Amino acid sequence: MIDVHPAWLPASAFRSVGSRRVRVTGDGPVVATVRDEVRTAVADHGGALVEDGPADLALVCAPDDGETDPEAFVVGREGTTTVVRAVDGVGLLYGFHHVVRQGESAFTGDGEARRHAPRQPIRMLDHWDNVDEHPVMGQVERGYAGGSIFYADGGVREDLSRVRSYARLLGSIGVNRVCLNNVNVHRTEARLLTDLLPDVVRLAEVFRPHGIRVHLSVSFAAPITLGGLPTADPLDPAVRDWWAHVTADVYAAIPDFGGYVVKADSEGQPGPFAYGRDHADGANTLARALAPFGGTVFWRAFVYNHRQDWRDRSTDRARAAHDHFAPLDGSFDANVVLQVKNGPLDFQVREPVSPVIAAMPRTRLAVEFQVTQEYTGQQKHVCHLVPQWREVLAFRPWGEDGHTVADVAAGRAGTPAGGVVAVSNVGDDPFWTGHPLAQANLFGFGRLAWDDRLAPEAVLDEWIGLTFADDSVRDALHGLMDGSWRTYERYTAPLGVGFMVRPGDHYGPDVDGYEYSPWGTYHFADRDGVGVDRTRATGTGYTGQYPVPWRDRYESVETCPDELLLFFHHVPYDHVLHSGETVIQHIYDTHFAGRDEVARMADTWAGLADRVPADVFGRVTELLAEQLRCATEWRDQVNTYFRRKSGVPDKHGRTIY
Ligand code: GCW
């Protein structure tokens, strides 16, 4: 049994580079990382790290090259040498890994010089890690891969070798920021900002040589809980002073500190509302403390009322972020990034794109994804999410001729740049992510954040090629993973309606689990129909938060896309979809089909027994059995529920319990 799985950087991934003569030119901590990578690769594969003389690969960091983006690189061939040039170590690191991913073709292709630069300036991972074990959420909130790789015994771990490997993995896919603790900031975690700061310094040192800046989640109430002040009112001068001093201390210890992440007035976290202030007042107070040092505050838009009454049909959680934040457009400081979840609810398998993204042209926006699979199988199910993220990033809120979501995040839509952020899925599990195939989601997030135009299949292809030494697994893995997000969608909540999960842990089916709970009501199924009426005409008015054309497309059942029908409309069970099927029959068909697809996935995997490492084979085999069990449970619970509610039998007469 290996200690820690190498993920997408096993020795075999470096064969092409490592078997050649390689020269590295330049100085600085990140160039040193590149040199170390080369040293290891050539030792493994028989090549050489050369100081001068002919080389097959030259990695050149030349600060005066005229390139303005430190993260960019140019790769091409000069004579028989493949040359990567960058003006900064971090660009060189990205160029090096580009060559690694290309493999032999980096040395045999047309050789024309091409410039590569990230499409998003900020590519960030948020950890929902607690320092201490939380009594309900465990050490990593919504973490499905064991405990935290950062913390043990009440502080940052003594042995950071695991973090070092993680930083290396993230650097190889271009992630450039990491937030080190949960957005729900508990007592001990708040102290990372003050007396536990020396520990944070150690983590920052591990990430720095990989081009990664660290952030901390902070509690809005910290001036009271840590500072002993009577208030955390963001407009109180003593509060502002407190933030300024504490922030200056952080920068004295970590000069390249990235800044703060804040969840305020959300799910019980403190915030500016307690003082009659708005979220711009709150965010700007922290932003002003960070500004002198070039820091950024990521302020989350995930603010909603979690004390609802199911009888009240006017309160709609989906509306909340737009209702709270759109009116504040233009009032945030330049170093505030508003961090918006990709959908209006909460990382469901299918949601429309958040309307906030098109509503704040004078605000820096970052789109937040969830790599950790809270609602998508919790790293027990194969659910390759890159196609979902790709769809969101490619969505055009203003219609076919308008900008994409990725354009907004990147600052290409006339709005200032924010970036993309995702909740990490790693833990201290030997495979990093619990499910070995969930590593592909982490990899894919980084790659898509770098270039939102990459095809999901191409990203998966890179991951397979790097991760598995035996290339004959490629087709089988595509067959198993390419469509797995849609498979998951088929056997869980139908047509965009969402939730239907067990409250609390969010794993497995419970059709009415949330229906009468204060956290929101999501399907309103009765004997006549199902779905949430979010129209302007008769519902919550949520469709009005979108610009043309989507406000009209979503408003009408005629033009609303099938996959979101029940998100936007309450319809009778015999309503006919664009697919030609009725809603009720669609529910039955997709649930039978989705479950059977999982059975086929398990068969496909069984055929790989001799071609993947035994430990990976064993773990995935076990988890596919659980996925099949759970998909069967989903199928039966959902079908039975709707069979009973609607009174409509399956037209194919299959067994519905
Ligand atoms: O998805 C929900 C989770 C909470 C999480 C919250 C958030 C960290 O159920 O566990 O809290 O979102 O994004 O803040």
Automatic annotation (TrEMBL):
Residues 433-654 form the Glycosyl hydrolase family 67 C-terminal domain. Residues 115-432 form the Glycosyl hydrolase family 67 catalytic domain. This is Alpha-glucuronidase. InterPro entries: A-glucoronidase_C_sf, GH, Glyco_hydro_67_aGlcAse, Glyco_hydro_67_C, Glyco_hydro_67_cat. It comes from the Bacteria. It holds the Pfam family Glyco_hydro_67M. It comes from Saccharothrix hoggarensis.
